[in-house]
Amino acid sequence: MRRRWHAGPAAGGWKASALALGCWGLAQPVLAQPGAALPIEMQAIPAGHFVMGSCLPVVGLRRNVAQANGCRTSDVHAHEDEGPRRQVSVPAFQLGRTPVTLGQFRQYVSAAGRDDLLTPDFLSSNAYGDNAPVVWVSWQDAQDFIVWLNQTQGGGWRLPSEAEWEYACRAGGQYSHCGGSDLSALGWYDANSGGQQQAVAQKLPNAFGLYDMSGNVWEWVQDCWVDSYQGAPTDGSAWLAGNCPKDRRSLRGGSWGGSASAARAANRFENSAVMRSHYYGFRLARSLEP
């Protein structure tokens, strides 16, 4: 039912990030070195609870039902696959402060001997510098990168779940986008991107110190695609039911080529696990040691 195809560190940004982390009492970022160059900067995300999803616009008697379910307001851009809203508990974990960059991915390609990934489509889609998010990577490509990272830099590396992603995006707020309601200050989308992905961490971070959660590139998450949250886990884990037999996986965040609506905190998208696109990238998560 895939409606809506939306194709889609500045000094000030880093300063704003430090202030945001201080307000939350969060630990400073952890540098994980997958080799000698281009460290992966991970941010500690505290455990917590949040309300996941959107409230569909309703009128008349349906409004009374919606309000009884906690929907005091609705999102005019909401889609049915963003509901029903529910309370989710998320354990502490780490999340990349930015999407994986081209420079980081090139290091993997070189170290793992994955020159097969350097296709003409990959090269033409990644012509914007080492600090831009890597694109033209499928969900499966991201998994291969993670296998290599776990083999070379210790365990626990993975993609975030949808619940973890939205929890980290919202960072304690209920804004329309990840960190606020003014997307132009937070991320890159069709109105300001110039028709290409942009270097990471140029816009403002959210309260958890995360950049580019809204816009720039769609980010693969671990979950199988399911077009409703009915019966979804409430413990923050990935939902590994639904359309995984059809290799459908979820993406979050919108992209440089998509609308502001596509970059909303609650918006969801999906595609085949082997699909590559110049709109698709990924962000790393890491489980904490028990």
UniProtKB/TrEMBL annotation:
Annotated organism of origin: Vandammella animalimorsus
One GO molecular-function entry: formylglycine-generating oxidase activity
Ranges for domain Sulfatase-modifying factor enzyme-like: 42-286
Protein name: Sulphatase-modifying factor protein
PANTHER family for the chain: BLL6746 PROTEIN, SULFATASE MODIFYING FACTOR 1, 2
Pfam families referenced in this protein's UniProt entry, alphabetically: FGE-sulfatase (PF03781)
Gene3D superfamilies: paralog of FGE (formylglycine-generating enzyme)
Top-level taxon of the source organism: Bacteria
